[in-house]
Amino acid sequence: MSTRRPSSLLRNPMAKLAAVPMVVTATVVFIGCSLWTVVYSFTDSKLLPRANFDGFAQYDRLWSSSRWIASVENLAIYGILTLLLSLTLGFVFAALLDQKIRGENVFRSIILYPYALSFIVTGLVWQWILNPDLGIQGMVRAAGWESFAFDPLNSPGLVMVALLMAGLWQGTGLVTVIMLAGLRGVDEDIWKASRVDGIPAWKTYLLVVVPILRPVFVTSVVLIGAGIVKLYDLVVALTGGGPGNASEVPAKYVYDYMFANQNLGQGFAASTMMLLAVLVIVIPWAVLEFGGKRRG
């Protein structure tokens, strides 16, 4: 006599009941507020939201604004470089720590420590480090190299380098720890087989280990990408968006228009563009992760 297995909806009822508040909150706050923002981005709202629909006028103003275009270009440059360098440095540091070196816990704590700081603190720290009188330039000149010049915070061509340095210092540690956890899950027999066959370690990493760590890389890309899109604190603390619009980013544009300029419609339109950017990152990740598991 066979017994029917309980429906998946009836399994772990207490766990599902405990998740109800979170689901309701996410549905109302995230989805509801996101839809509200999208709807009111088609209005001419100023100080307060009002349902005077204005078509795509806000989006026309948005994409004709040199400040918005500059913010998108800056974020694209920062995002591409941050993504590539974070993954590369994170994997290299993780591979070095995976060699069972002495004092691994100390090095791991040092690498991860900056991530425990907020972006505001990180920005203030790097503002001091890059200060032309007290930071790198001042110390090098004090050591005798009087002609040395390194002042990226006041140089439109180098200010994104300053943001990149601070962002990598703050976020690479998390990527390193994620990569290290993935490397520790690689079967030891793979390394034994590669040593027996005389395969160089770099080739084993490149052709065997990296494909195995595909889910780890995807997770890292999603986390880094989400942080890139919402970049705001670091810019405000380190550069204030200057000099000029050289370090302007979309999140700062949204904040300034919604609160400083009292133009909610323009802020809603910019927020909607940022939401689309997040969806471009999250949807492919969800398809790769959950779609692949369902097919499997």
Automatic annotation (TrEMBL):
Keyword Transmembrane helix tagged: yes
Pfam families documented for this protein: BPD_transp_1
Transmembrane segments: 20-42, 75-98, 110-129, 158-183, 204-229, 268-288
Cross-referenced PROSITE patterns: ABC_TM1 (PS50928), PROKAR_LIPOPROTEIN (PS51257)
Localization: Cell membrane
Record keywords, A-Z: Cell membrane, Membrane, Transmembrane, Transmembrane helix, Transport
Source organism superkingdom: Bacteria
Family, per entry: Belongs to the binding-protein-dependent transport system permease family.
The name this protein goes by in its record: Glucose/mannose transport system permease protein
